[in-house]
From TrEMBL:
Keywords: Disulfide bond, Immunoglobulin domain, Membrane, Transmembrane, Transmembrane helix. One of its GO terms (cellular component) is external side of plasma membrane. It is found in: Membrane. GO terms for molecular function: signaling receptor binding. Gene3D superfamilies: Immunoglobulins. The chain crosses the membrane at residues 18-44, 56-77. GO terms for biological process: regulation of cytokine production; T cell receptor signaling pathway. InterPro entries: CD80_C2-set, Ig-like_dom_sf, Ig-like_fold, IgSF_BTN/MOG. It comes from Perca fluviatilis (European perch). The keyword Membrane applies. This is CD80-like immunoglobulin C2-set domain-containing protein. Residues 201-281 form the CD80-like immunoglobulin C2-set domain. It holds the Pfam family C2-set_2.
Length: 317
């Protein structure tokens, strides 16, 4: 992507404007005529011609980068099982592109076709049975370059699927000449999750142990333990080495169950909290337990302090 920043700065053009120049064939020029216009010229004209030549050369390089290489990054899409999601992709088109001049298709990393569109028509016969009745496009937005699709009913079988979009645009003169040749337009990876809906925290204040459990979610969750200090309400994050956590997927549906256990360290702590985080959905469940033993210890300390003050007063008198 750095080469685009440099080229755009030299040309004072955006990437989209460069694409439109390429699409309208402005990248093609007669080097020989430019050479002679430079050779037989006055000094001022020479400077202008050299500038034109330089700009045209840079534009030609930009066209090569745009149309001949993969300039798109990999996008990550997160969704929930059973919840429809949009797989986004945009193709930079000339302003007057007719759908009859557009061809594109989506496929996964196994080269199974999700969706196919060719010269104004959807091509359902090309779609693999795995994706039939699950993919819809947005024909009303295609003339603007929106070749996204909506993915219905995602399952855990779709997790980590890599989708690629290939497309081409023909010229408007019916010659089948490509304005944009067959190339990869977009690439994205789908992450599918199941939310953890419940979290349970059990604390035994006699043994000063705490057990946190959650179940039936995906992917494997991240767990964290925090202790809240009574004196200043600051939170102490427990070292992972002091946490015993086991998480295992169900062999049938692949949903995870987690159990995490700690020994609560000594100190003036008023509460203990277990945090379970779903990394795909970026959702955290929190369970908190208030430590009654901490209150008792503080009461005993206060009583001892009061007795010491009383004893000191007796000695003085």
């Amino acid at each position: 992507m750095q080469q685009w920043a440099g080229i755009s700065k030299l040309l004072y053009l955006s990437k989209q404007e460069i694409a439109l120049l390429c699409a309208s064939s402005l990248c093609i020029f007669d080097e020989l005529s430019i050479f002679f216009s430079i050779y037989f010229c006055f000094p001022l004209r020479c400077v202008m011609s050299e500038l034109i030549l330089s700009r045209m050369f840079i534009i030609s390089v930009a066209c090569f980068l745009l149309l001949g290489s993969d300039v798109t990054g990999v996008l990550y899409v997160n969704t929930t099982v059973g919840e429809s999601t949009v797989l986004p992709c945009n193709l930079m088109l000339p302003a007057t592109t007719d759908l009859k001049h557009l061809r594109f298709y989506w496929q996964d990393e196994r080269e199974q076709v999700l969706y196919s569109f060719n010269e104004g028509k959807e091509m359902p016969e090309h779609v693999n049975k795995l994706y039939r009745d699950r993919i819809t496009a947005f024909p009303q937005d295609m003339t603007g370059g929106n070749i996204s699709v909506k993915f219905e009913y995602p399952t855990l079988e779709d997790n980590h699927r890599v989708f690629r979009v290939f497309g081409a645009v023909f010229d408007s003169r019916g010659t089948k000449r490509f304005i944009i040749g067959h190339s990869e337009i977009c690439q994205l990876t789908l992450h599918v999750a199941v939310p953890y809906e419940h979290i349970s925290l059990t604390v035994n204040e006699e043994t000063m142990t705490a057990v946190c459990t959650t179940r039936r979610g995906f992917p494997e969750p991240l767990v964290e333990w925090r202790l809240q200090n009574h004196s200043d309400n600051t939170q102490h994050l427990l070292d992972p080495q002091d946490v015993n956590t086991t998480a295992a997927p169900d062999p049938q549906d692949h949903l995870y169950s987690l159990t995490s256990t700690i020994v609560i360290p000594g100190g003036p702590y008023q509460s203990v909290a277990c945090l379970v985080h779903n990394p795909t959905l970026n959702v955290t469940l929190i369970a908190t337990h208030v430590l009654n033993k901490g209150e008792a210890e503080r009461s005993r300390l206060s009583l001892a302090g009061a007795l010491m003050v009383a004893a000191a007063a007796v000695l003085i008198y």
